[in-house]
Specification:
By secondary structure, the protein is mostly beta strands. 12% of the residues lie in helices and 34% in strands. InterPro entries: SRAP (IPR003738), SRAP-like (IPR036590).
């Protein structure tokens, strides 16, 4: 699964990396080394305004997808991940999977490997210069004519070296799948739901400090490698 991750680039850098425009305005969150459910995050979307071309932009969303028909936001923390295997059939995700897909950029994500005593956290990353493109879904929930845009990260069964850390992993999109995944006119993403081994093989599985266990801790030291005894 993906229950905690880091996003360290500002929206202008993300926009350049993903060939998008910065649509965050004054809402953009700063660098966050310990993103937890229901926090505001940045995501890349592609929309087509009426009588206009497709526009790709970086937007701010709340992590934890809330379907438009939900009564309130209370279930958001349980909806941070959507299983790729069932995303096209589950009512909570189906419509978003068909027409509201996004990319959630990350410097990396955390997983905790069971061991003797306390679990050891690892940070999965391509390095600080290259963002991971986590496949995501988004939705809009309304109350009193005020929209709340929410999102979820797709997950799949782990492959490669990640199987030693956790049985689930985010669905990581290679660059040649970005356009197809974001295209709102393409209503069948089923061929894009398989994990890409080349990205997994390029990942650094970096042991990091257990300070990341607490969401109260949030600084650059959380993603630094530690030496295991």
């Amino acid at each position: 699964m993906c229950g905690r991750y880091a996003s360290t680039k500002d929206p202008a850098l993300l926009a350049a990396e993903f060939d998008a425009v910065d649509g965050t305005g004054d809402e953009a969150p700063g660098a966050d080394y310990n993103i937890a459910p229901t926090k505001h995050v940045m995501a890349v979307v592609e929309r087509q305004p009426e009588d206009a071309e497709l526009e790709r932009s970086v937007r701010v969303m709340r992590w934890g997808l809330v379907p438009h028909w939900a009564k309130d936001l209370s279930g958001a923390a349980k909806m941070i991940n959507a299983r790729a295997e069932s995303v096209l059939t589950k009512p909570a995700y189906k419509q978003s999977a068909i027409k509201r897909r996004c990319i959630i950029p990350a410097a990396g994500w955390y997983e905790w490997q069971p061991g003797e005593g306390r679990k050891q956290p690892y940070f999965m990353t391509l390095g600080e210069d290259t963002s991971l493109a986590m496949a995501g879904l988004w939705s809009v929930w309304w109350k009193d004519d005020v929209p709340t845009v929410t999102c979820a990260v797709l997950t799949t069964e782990s492959i490669g070296a990640l199987t030693d850390v956790h049985n689930r992993m985010p669905l990581l999109l290679p660059q040649d799948r970005w356009s197809a995944w974001l295209d709102p006119t393409s209503r069948d993403p089923s061929e894009l739901l398989a994990p890409d081994l080349s990205i997994v093989e390029a990942l650094e599985l970096r042991p990091v400090s257990t300070e990341v266990n607490s969401v109260k801790n949030n600084n650059a030291s959380l993603i630094e490698r530690v030496v295991l005894s």
